[in-house]
Design a protein that fits this description.
The protein is of the alpha+beta class. The protein has helices at about 20-25, 60-125, 130-155, 160-165, 165-180, 200-220, 260-270; strands spanning about 10, 30-40, 40-50, 185-190, 225-230, 235-240, 270-275, 285-290. Strands 4-5-6-8-7 form a five-stranded mixed sheet, with helices on one face. Strand 5 (about 225-230) and strand 6 form a beta hairpin.
Length: about 290
């Protein structure tokens, strides 16, 4: 039956050795219907209906079971598709992040290390102690700058504060880095309480805030950004608001502003993402996820 993909009505389980009598016996039945769940030419499972009523099962029951099996097969196939697409989305996001980090390592860190090598040669070839001290001082500044870049990349890969102390301290440290690097007036306010959020929620919220702040720096021309986190009735809300130039959400591709990646992260947690913006009116992102 599973091989052929056809349904079968067995009026007496005890008389049919091919009908898995042990299943019926285990369920206390005497008659059974086996209806395979078929979708796309594949047998995904089987619907089993068992009864111990004296009248047993008939052709009408078989038709009803087949209808249920068809609907169940569609639901199972759809669930598999959603799971596969979710996995693809995660993999795509990971690959995009790796490509970005690879570019930064090659262009910034790799370039800085090359400059350090050239600086070492210049220091070695310096004609007098004064020129040598000057070359060493320039090298020291370049090494410090490169070290900061490497630390920044490490934080982007996985911030240690997120694992050690939780979401809010990690976001405060992230905000501090953005303040120092851009001069933004950036405020983080938390009403989450003392309890830690689930790890996957903390990671998703951190990455979404990180992406949103990166967008603000690149596109918003904002002076002030506020981040508010609240927790109520098993839901966590994150509101990220800036006073920048804003944009028309319907006229800008989601990939350009990282919105597609944000929606994928939120969707994997069965959450929502709302974007409110307009020309000259700033931008507000509202993220809500279970927590």
């Amino acid at each position: 039956m599973l091989v052929s993909g056809t349904s079968e009505l067995v009026e007496r389980l005890e008389d049919d050795p091919h009908a898995a009598a042990e299943i019926g016996a285990g369920l206390g039945g005497t008659a059974a219907i086996f209806a395979p769940l078929v979708a796309g030419g594949r047998v995904l499972g089987v619907l089993l209906a068992v009864t111990d009523e004296p009248d047993g099962l008939d052709g009408g029951d078989l038709v009803l079971a087949e209808n249920f099996a068809r609907r169940a097969a569609i639901a199972v196939e759809l669930s598999e598709r959603v799971a596969r697409e979710s996995l693809r989305s995660v993999v795509r996001a990971q690959e995009q992040e790796r490509r970005r980090l690879a570019r930064e390592l090659h262009d910034e860190t790799g370039g800085a290390l090359t400059s350090i090598l050239l600086g070492l040669r210049a220091a070695e070839d310096a004609p007098d102690p004064e020129n040598q001290r000057r070359a060493v001082a320039e090298l020291r500044e370049l090494v410090v700058s490169t070290l900061q870049d490497v630390r920044r990349l490490a934080v982007q890969l996985r911030p240690k504060a997120l694992d050690d102390f939780g979401l809010v301290p990690a976001l405060e440290r992230l905000a501090e880095g953005f303040r120092e690097g851009s001069g933004l007036d950036l405020e983080v306010e938390s009403r989450l309480g003392e309890a830690r959020l689930p790890e996957e929620v903390e990671t998703a919220v951190y990455r979404i805030v990180q992406e949103a702040l990166t967008n603000v720096l690149k596109h918003a021309e904002a002076e002030h950004v506020s981040i508010l986190l609240t927790r109520k009735n098993g839901r966590v809300s994150v509101v990220i608001e800036d006073d920048g130039r804003g944009f028309d959400p319907s006229g800008v591709g989601g990939d350009l502003l990282g919105l597609a990646g944000m929606r994928e992260r939120v969707g994997l947690l069965d959450g929502t993402l709302v974007v409110e913006s307009g020309e000259g009116r700033g931008t507000t992102l509202v993220v809500t996820v279970p927590g």
